[in-house]
Amino acid sequence: MLSIAVVAAVFLFGVESYSQAKEINSNANQKIKANISPRKSTRTTTTAIPRTSAPPTGANAFVTRVFTDSQGQSLRYYLYVPNGYTPGQSYPLVLLLHGGGERSNPAWTAMQNKAILFRNRYVQVWTPGYSIPYGPNIQQHWPSFVVVPQLSYGQYWVDAPIHNGSYTQTSQPTPWLLMAKEIVDALQKEYQGIDSNRLYITGLSLGGYGVWDAIERWPSYFAAAIPIAGAGDPSKAAVLKNLPIWAFHGSADATVPVSGSRDMIAAIKAAGGHPLYTEYPGAGHGIWDSVYATTGTAQRTPGVLSWLFSQVGQHPL
Description:
Layout: H1 4-13, H2 18-32, E1 63-68, E2 74-80, E3 91-97, H3 110-118, H4 121-124, H5 138-141, E4 145-150, H6 175-190, E5 194-204, H7 206-217, E6 224-228, E7 246-250, H8 259-270, E8 276-280, H9 288-291, H10 304-310
Parallel strand pairs: 3-4, 3-5, 5-6, 7-8
Antiparallel strand pairs: 1-2, 2-4
Helix pairs in contact: 1-2
């Protein structure tokens, strides 16, 4: 088993620090081996999960799973179950769609693929052990399931160029976006405590495209959406007029044109909707740390997450 030193090095400094951390682990294990009790295996269950005084953070807080659809296609995903989960209670669920830089590589180990995703603060922030100054403390305030599917190289949330802004939606979703939704479907059947009226979706960059595409295809499925630095199909925006949306973009984004968000917001408003939109003046592409409050400084846009978790939809399973 890897020590805390290894886990910290991998997820704070990236997978390239693994060799150095392994040396630390070898020395540290000799000193603390007697104090470490065996870790219990993770199993899917609908019974209550005992609370712990020090819930894990980062990748350790997530269970790795693989979803296989009816066509035999599969998608790896990481699941966080609220600490002390009790089936009789009601919990929201957040579906988080990552950006293009966090896709897995078939040539890497499972640990390396998980590390490329979980070294990012925008993923770590959803776990209970993540604590920084001015942090949102999500699990303390809003205990929730968190689902993070991981694409592999060559896979996309949307079938469209991701650097051109607005696009024309295809008739069918990509297999991976559809499987992301099917994972949420399956989890609601597995965990009776998930509230189908409090399903939320958020994502950034490539994942921001995925959020817009998902809510345009299934406008009544999610209770609210936070797309960041993405784009959608403005011609389909009318279906979103009643959905709570808070979109974000940097005005100087050189990766995904800011017109991608502007076009969607304008189209929704033209249809009679009232979406929220925050554009950071002079900001580039990587604005998600400001949105999710992971900068360690005073929140640039306070109230985003409290807004998200206050939304309640009308989605029967």
